[in-house]
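Researcher: Next entry in the queue.
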Amino acid sequence: MSEASFDLSLLWPAFIAGLLITATHVPLGIQVLGRGIVFIDLAVAQIAGLGVIVADWAGFDPHGWLVQFSALSAALAGALLLTWTEKLWPDVQEAVIGVMFVLASNGAILLLASNPHGAEHLRNLLVGQILWVNAARLPIEALVYAGIIAIWFRFGERIGRIGFYALFACAVTVSVQFVGLYLVFITLIVPALATRRFQRRRLAFCYALGAASYALGLGLSILTDLPPGPLIVYSMTALGLLMFCAGPGRLAKAA
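Model: Structure for this entry, 255 residues:
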């Protein structure tokens, strides 16, 4: 990365990818926070990742449609199962989500145990490779995200529990292969947390926070030659904390 890190041409595809993730996950994150099922993102993303690993284990082309089908099928199956458990055991849904995350994580570890590149695959699933986003894929990813956003803003909560989980599974399946599980989770949760006291223009502040965090994290990565994923995570957390502390709820309380 040391030579390529100073190539600014790496930044714009990565930044656009961050904007796409932000645009899609912010409204879903607000809904997730409101439902009190914060760790659903980790669970469904890990299940989608397990689908990718299963496809790789079966010998499918890593860039072929069968891998995408496997990831999406796994994520949808996990989402439908969570829909059923939420209806059956609503009081322990977070615990169920945690168990599913652990099961999917350990399933991935078992499948990768005999793979000489297993550790690298697992790292890419968690941390991602946002600096190496394929610019040619951005229009396709943008179309998928546009469809997800259009469905959400057109129908919102009217799509019901099953519809929400299915839409969420589609978004996470694309995103976790795009930028990794950690960035997906932090983009989903931190903007929603930072603006939870906002009564007006909450969505706009969330989008601004996401865009600024990806820009700052990527910039720091270029300057320090450190991995961009963790830097974006810390940037978004720090900026989110500043936004929360300076938010209308805090200012009103201080007055």
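Model: The radius of gyration is 18 Å.
Researcher: Noted, moving on.
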